[in-house]
Amino acid sequence: MKIGILSRKASLYSTNSLKQAALAMGHEVHVIDYLRCYMNITSHRPSVIYQGEALEGYDAVIPRIGASQTFYGTAVVRQFEMTGVYAVNESQAISRSRDKLRSLQLLARRGIGLPVTGFANSTQDIEGLVNIVGGAPLVIKLIEGTQGIGVVLAETHQAATSVIEAFRGLDANILVQEFIKEAGGADLRCFVIGDRVVAAMKRQGAEGEFRSNLHRGGSATTVRLSPEERMTATRAAKAMGLNVAGVDLLRSNHGPVVMEINSSPGLQGIEGATGMNVAGKIIEFIEKNAKHGNTRDKVKH
Asked: What distance lies between CA 12 and its chain's CA centroid?
């Protein structure tokens, strides 16, 4: 098969891991900087052009779209879909998962466990917003934030009010969520491929840090998931329409709750913690599912 990896840098761990796995399994693979692609949008012969040449003959593409480049990155993925190329994660699914509010609304509609979450536009509604999530301590999240950036733990009512007013004063869209104290600064990263969790790790935040992101000094260890946690992770990925996803769960007193869903989950942490060749599992999934024109978004919202 001829596989394209849509990534800004070939040297990134995840990109290189996918490339090496594909080569080891006998495939032709190319790393394509999606921001350097441009498109010929026409009715009968749409194409993606890279370094002056049309990209043709690809059986599948693996999108590794950065959060800050979602708009253009998903446009490139969509153009490949128009030419019949199989996308491991479809453009619509990526866009859906990147919209934190929309993704939470979809999960809630399907009855998937979530932290109690509030959203409002006006600073005049702060009191009601804080009450929705049970008061302080509570977590305030920028909708556009990633890797723990733009996430604040407000430990008192006064602090929560001040932070919300500051963010809204900057016209920043925010979510307010209950603080899951019993999680102890740890979360579970469940790596979903297709309809099953292929690997999982527990991420523990650094001393005094409630965020468990590895980019912020957190540590990772292998973990055994309960059947309910596995089901929650796979249902969450399916709700987004994602074939490959990193689903982050918190262990709460009322069962597993979804904190976030990542459409371009990193491989370094999960492969390092579990010793599993997750990249190889992704290539195996492509081998079984990649067919020309087999791009159908199954989530209608």
From this structure: 17
Q: What local confidence, expressed as pLDDT, does residue 267 receive?
A: 96
* Domains held by the chain: number: 3
DSSP strand pairing (86-87 vs 60-63): parallel
Q: Are residues 200 and 280 in the same domain?
A: yes
| Percent of the chain clearing pLDDT 70 (strictly above) | 91
Q: Which CATH number do you get for residue 252?
A: 3.30.470.20
| pTM for this predicted structure | 0.88
Shared domain check, 215 and 147: no
Specify if 270 maps to a domain.
yes
Per-residue pLDDT tens digits for 233-287: 999 999 999 999 999 999 999 899 999 999 999 999 999 999 999 999 999 999 9
264 and 214 belong to one structural domain: yes
